[in-house]
Design a protein that fits this description.
Protein NRT1/ PTR FAMILY 1.2-like, Growth Hormone, Chain: A, 21 helices, 62% helix, disordered C terminus, globular, 0% strand, transmembrane
Length: 606
Amino acid sequence: MRWLTFLPKDKVKEISYVSETISKPLWPARIGDSNKRISPIADCSSSSSANGTIEKVASQGLMPSMILYLTEVYGMKSAQASNVIFLWSAATNFTPIVCAFLADSYFGRFPMVAAGSIFSFLERSNSDSDLRIGTIVLWLTAMIPQARPFCDEISGYCDAPSTPQLLLLYSSYAIISIGSGCVQASYIAFGADQLYRKNKSNSGILDSYFNTCYISAALGTLVGMSCIVYIQDRIGWGMGFGVPVALMLLATITFFLASPLYLKSMPSESWCAGLVQVVFAAYKKRHMQIPFVGTSEIYHQENGSSCALPSDKLRFFNKACIIRNSEEELTPDGKASNPWSLSTVEQVENLKALMRIIPLWSTGILVSASLNQSFYVLQVASMDRHLTSSFEVPAGSFSMMVLVLLIIWITLYDRLILPLASKCRGKPTRLSAKTRIGIGILCCTLSLAVSAIVESDRRALAIKEGFSDNPNAVVSMSAFWTLPRYILLGIEEGFSVIAQVEFFYNELPKAMSSVATSLLGLNSSVGNLAASFIMTTVDNLSEAVGGRSWVSSNINEGHSDYYYWLLFGLLFANFLYFLACSKSYGPSKEESAGRSSAEDYKNIVN
């Protein structure tokens, strides 16, 4: 409701209802102060930021240099190490969907976050809250010489890792995936639960909530990519992995100390079973004719539900909620006698909402695949990274430029651009979530073109300087030529990532909030699998056809630039696919509400 400040004071109260969109938690665990005004900063800190920011410092400080750890300490080839990271990230980003289902349907969000916080203290991951036990296991691989293969520091030769050594390494990744899934699945939705208050002055707070949380997470990631990566680069892997262990312990203690302050929502009935029941009921009634003009009496409605009639989209599923014989299909209290034969209108609409977003969700798969490219680090590592004559930026820290741009963009967009645009236009103004997603995909596509051009110049210079057979050589080309790529990726993050979370959260029913906020992680999971498939295919085909792999361990002999151009072509086709999906989807709830708000504003002001 920031734009209301630009109206005359006597108009503010008349239209304050326009942005009231926060839903009530199913069960407030504490209700004594439910009328107090809580800022988005406080809510985010009480629910996820205090814990999530600390964990971001640790988790994101480990991921950028992981490919260096696998290639230097475990002697893996670049393509093999990249595939290990791809598969690990895929598992880490898939488990939140399973945990989200358990949180929404059975356990609730607070128990799920708490369980993940304890369990994941054994691990480490590339997400918000997934390190704990796994960090210890990963730390042990760096501290115990027998836990890793022998490497000659002078020659760089490494023995092949033994089966027990790989099992120890991979077990840390597996524990990470489970623990991170528990936390990632619920911490954003759990934070949104904290925002509900009876005071209507808080009704516009949700728009700022996602931005505030992402700024907190970005700050934590920024510190991790700079400080933790610097420790790994200058002091060693033992200390570089040990600091995250201490931070994870601090994050866990912080989360549980604040437990009495949280609102804790009870789980709802299993929405997943309800969606499956809709499919079964619609199939059983597949031969039934759907009336073109129906009344609410012929459809089964849940008591107190605002859904009286099903929508016209995906009409086949409307058959699931049509009452053929009320005496046989309904109990005396109005419920379905067999939920596998008769569903409610609300269940039908929930399934439709999920199915409708799948095409738009799928447009993020290739974006995630292009972002999760470890070759970015190898490229930067082979370039001159000196910021001054005495200070050299670690290769893994270059990714923090994305976070700097992300923080700057979110701050400007939320606090300056939107209020200024609203004031200039005389009405509430903001880019829709779909528009921001499209801009993000386009920026990601352009970043790959930049990567290809820079890599082509870098490789040509490496060959000219005689480094063809020396992949560890540093060419006389500044690594800051990669800055445009990181600028574009920062803009992509600022536009697309937050917009996707907002879009899924707004379009899906509130009973599926945890799943809605976990869909981005599922995107990353499938994207990592796609990235692994693309890299393996390119590695095998390019070596078979040309005799030398494009993604060779020797970056100077390979052709990473060709690989980037291939990704550019795939992303451009994906952008066209997004435009088609966006047009087919039609106006979102946000866009429909925005038009209504603008009309109300115009009527009141006039």
